[in-house]
Amino acid sequence: MTALIRAPRSLLLRSTLSALAAATILLTAVGVPVPASAAPPVGSIADQQEHDDAPGDAFGTGDAPGASDAVAPAAGSSRVIGKLVLQNRSSGSSAYVGLSSPESGRNVQRLYSSSVGGAASLAGTYSLPAVGAAGPITGTGTSSTLCLTPAGDGSRALVAARTCTGSPSQDFEWRYVSNKWVAGYALYPVSSPYSLGGTDNDTFVELTMDALTDVVVESQLAPIEPFELRTPAIGAKVDTPTPTFSGIGQPGSSISIRTDAQALLASTNVPLDSTSWSVPAIQLEPGRYTGTATQSGTGSDAQVRFDFTVPSPLAPGASIPTPTLAPGQSVEVAATFNADASGQRIDVYHPVYTRITAVDHPAFTLDALGIGGVLPVGTTTLRFTLRANDDAPVGEATGGKVTYGSSRITIADFTANIVRAPDEPIAPLVVESPRRGETITETTPVFRGTGEPGSRVEIRGAWGDVLGVVDQVDASGAWSITWNKSLLPSRYAGGTVKQFVDGVPTHTFVYDFTIVQPRLVVTSPRVGDTLTGTRPVFTGAANPGARVQITGAWGTDLGSAIADPRTGEWTITWPRDYLPARYFGGTVTETVAGKVIASSGYDFTLTQ
Fold it and tell me: The pTM is what?
């Protein structure tokens, strides 16, 4: 069987549907034909099944030959040549008998039989079932009413003219057909799925339909619109997880879209004033979807197939190394991308203290922030030149990134390692606090100083244990390390502070400091006391050996003493006589190793 040429709608649709109740079929037995080339098939997205017939199945030119027992058309009727055809899907369950109007002299359609006698038995005048009702294709044989009936022989399915039994296996109904070979309304077998085929050694009959025009005038049947699913196209890859189904159909009909597993993807109605329809699908997971779009509610159901794929979401990825360069130096950087980045907008932003000065791909352009462009399909590597600023500080330069799409979604970070130039002198390690011999009061020491930017500074105790570290001195050269333990008041010496540049120690400082706790106590006069006499006497306690100093409110030195080395007690008598009055605002301080570690104010009244 060959592909059919699509008939004009005025003939194919109106003629086919209007002829359902009264048209007759003239079948004429003929012999084995001589092969001729076939016309191209009709394109459609409705069914992607392959046709069983080979190119050699198109035969004949001119009008159908006559036969002695052929039934002539009724006198005076308008003659319209058409072909009643049995069309099939090679892997589907449905075959159908239908009407087409092929080009004059081309695409003669055939019903096969395995014998001349079998073909001859098909000759006769047949009537078609009415629209909207199932029934047989009936005709009159030599002694009984005949019905066209599928009759397979195990290797192919044929058609025979059999005695009508009233069995549903002989019933047909009208359905709309749209596939890559034919588009129009056709008669489908109701309960006997089969696939029609034949060989050049089989005999066949041609089928000619008459009296269509008279039937159209008499019935005044309204034409039924074809049902088509236009999007998504067969085999399409959609660009959204909610693709839109669209097509044409009968106004007022219902449309449902279901997978082969009967999952409902979408449903809608064709507007009463239009033949066009569209409806978005539910949210779909990535994968392939096959199934059927069904039109119902206006006569017999019509169905077309769909087959499309929802691809996995794009996951562009990039990998970009961390280059190492000195201030003022340029290096080439190669960024690599995965397949999902192909065809996407890609932007590369440079880290701080650097800039991109060149790119080796014409699809990318430079700007103040970096480079950008659409990565060509198939491209996985992008090379560009990165330059460190002349005044770039040593250390990690952050802030660079790689993005994709107009929304600039980050898919990789981009940093650079700025190092000291080979001929640049290394800054010395300086420990500013605590200095050697210094006394401090903090029980958790904090060391501060300066050094080479980007270097590592480490503090170790006299026994070698790590007491604190800074992995990278900042660009200013300043650093600070808080010890990882609290200490008792005592002297601490013999430990080291070391500076490392590129893993190599460059400078070492040996620390020596003392921790003391303030012990200053003024036992007399207490705040608010009244003293008798002209020379106040202060007493109290402090760290043994500490220097205690009294200073007046105007900065006058009022006396000092060294706390007893054993008990820490001290006594200070003011150096001259004072008049009766209130005295306040001055201070008493405790000093250890030249550092004031405690201070206390006084407030008392002197009387005679």
Answer: 0.36
